[in-house]
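Protocol step 4 of 6: structure prediction from sequence.
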Amino acid sequence: MARPRILVVGAGFAGVECVRRLERSLAPGEADIALVTPFSYQLYLPLLPQVASGVLTPQSVAISLRRSRRHRTRIVPGGAIGVDTKAKVCVVRKITDEIVNEPYDYIVMAAGSVTRTFDIPGLVDNARGMKTLAEAAYIRDHVISQLDLADASHDEEERASRLQFVVVGGGYAGTETAACLQLLTSNAVRHYPRLDPKLIKWHLIDIAPRLMPELGDKLGLSALEILRRRGIEVSLGVSVAEAGPDKVTFTDGRVLPCRTLIWTAGVAASPLVATLDAETVRGRLAVTPEMKLPGADGVFALGDAAAVPDLAKGDGAICPPTAQHAMRQGRKLADNIIASLRGRPLQPYVHKDLGLVVDLGGRDAVSKPLGIELRGMPAQAAARGYHWAALRTNVAKTRVMTNWLLNAIAGDDFVRTGFQARKQATLRDFEYTDAYLTPEEIRAHTAGADARG
């Protein structure tokens, strides 16, 4: 009898934790496990702002999936572009551009999320995101290159536009990105004697009336005070009306000369979700508390791609798209797949949120672990301690700790690699959101494969 085939789509927090639990809990030969991912690493997403500011190297937050020889999961190097739940087939575009069918008995939809965008003129052509490792590395190069280009320019208008930076999104990603990159430029400008430090302006804008409302009023105000004390102009209740290559128009009518627009205004579930033609909640797959997709045999979903009921909060709440939920959901879902294989009942996912941490760079942070409000160095210790403990391998922990110590002792460096220096890269270039098939295309593809087979 053929062994059951378990296919995990996505190597984020949820997918990797699910695979690790399956490998440890299943007996040899009990099932075949495959993981679909375009990159053979797990990205520790919360630390991307520190990669963008150069505090951490890209390798320190990209944890290799091929490093351990003990793991028996087959890695499929590519991206899932569609799922036919009736035929039990996942359509994968491999990194060679070959399109293949991956049959499954159980599929774990852990495809994560992409940057949420809106129909704003010029946005996808002129903004950068903070969702992938390549984007973080690119933004670092881009920001330093603006200082170099401003230093080389004799045009006052061009110089002013290159030294204005806009971050959209007052959540954790946007706030940390603005805070960390502002520290980078304020430290770097000391080495540019021709540049007036007063010309460097960072703007953080958000349509919401408060900064990081999940932290509560007091900590949100503390973060706001820290940013404004550093000279970051924070505008709330404001968004972008139009994004051009050298200027940004805000919804309040202001027009700002600017060559750097970083868009972090939330996330949306992976477009792969739409290929299943299933019920969704705010764009995420509607699943049971056991993370099973109703009406689809052998289909489970979790993490950012799924609206997992938050039983700890109740009142119809769904789990927020955070790492702490994704990791725990991954482990619980692996247990449920194993229970299904062995004929045991599935268990619902329940987890009470442990709190939030926000690293604002340097000695600044605000944190709320277990409901305890912290500021300054205690909050920084809590934030970095949490991230360090959450890193999956000792190698990653060593690299991150070494980077932090080196940065604390030696300070920032301002080297740019020239990454895509001649070709500007934007949101459109990094997240491949146009690569997915429609449900009709998927059915046609799987039907054609069956006919040829």
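Step 5 (inspection) to follow. The first helix runs from residue 13 to 25.
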